[in-house]
Amino acid sequence: MENERASDTAYGILTDMIVDLRLPPGSFLNEQSLADQLGLGRMPVREALAQLAKDRFVTIMPRRGTVVTPLALDDILGMFEAREAVECGIAYIAASRATDDDLEALRKLVKTVDDARVITDSEQFLKDDHAVHSFLIHMIRNPLLQDAADRLLLHSLRFWRSYWRDRPPRQEAMLSHAELFEAVEAHDSVRAEKAMREHLQSSRQLVQLLF
Fold first, then answer.
1. Residues 61-120: tens digit of each pLDDT
2. Distance CA 79, CA 77 (A)
3. How many angstroms separate the CA atoms of 110 and 182, rounded?
């Protein structure tokens, strides 16, 4: 059990380091160096890397080593396709199940995103945008779906951080959630699904134009 807990700790830390680009796409990873850095044994790090490979955050290349998975256009478009397949259904369900407390919390989260858009703070926008999508997922209270969707959102956050790192902030590229929130607030599942689809498709079109 102790070894399992250590590998879980290593997994969590390494995931954070990959998503916030401390371990950038394409960088090679050394088990012993990471173990020393994290203050953990080499075996928990190895187990964490194996799980990260299953989750597609790292790629293990025989006889060459382990590398943080690069961000290729085909993979990014695949990520958007997966998000559309999953999150449109989530929006549909969330609209039908939203409680008053859910809506109040979601309203505040959407406002923080809009505030970040106004000042074109790309990092704050990404954090707040992630919080909106993550909260919608947890509104449906389905652990199996939450696990899969949460992982997708981490891949998305990693990509968008990389995207904005080399580009000046642009308000028109920071998409609003107003239509989505209004649909969820109205408990209109069909409209919420449509709003989420349009939101994700607009993001994907932006990437295809500027990638």
1. 988 899 999 999 899 999 999 999 999 999 999 999 999 999 999 999 999 999 999 888
2. 5
3. 11
For residues 37 and 74, the answer to whether their CB atoms sit within 8 Å is no
Start-end of H helices in 27-72? 31-38, 42-54
CA distances to 40, 48, 87 from 17, in Å: 16, 13, 25
Q: For tokens 């409209």, name the residue.
A: 191
Please identify which residue in the block is written with the tokens 């990520």. 79
The DSSP bridge pattern shows strands 58-61 and 65-68 to be antiparallel
Q: Evaluate if residue 3 carries a pLDDT over 60.
A: no
Cβ partners under 8 Å of residue 33, min gap 6: none
Containing 29, the helix (H) or strand (E) segment is strand 28-29
User: Rounded to the nearest 5°, which phi and psi values hold at 197?
Assistant: -60, -45
Do 20 and 12 form a contact (C-beta atoms < 8 A)?
no
Contact predicate 40/9, CB 8 Å? yes
Strand partners for 60 = 66
Report whether 98 contacts 195 (CB < 8 A): no
Q: Which residue has the tokens 């080399």?
A: 166
Q: Give 1's pLDDT tier (boundaries 50, 70, 90).
A: very low
Nearest-10 crossing angle of helices 122-139, 100-118: 160
* 67 contacts 27 by C-beta, under 8 angstroms: yes
φ/ψ region of 77 (left if φ > 0, alpha if ψ in -120 to 50, else beta) reads: alpha
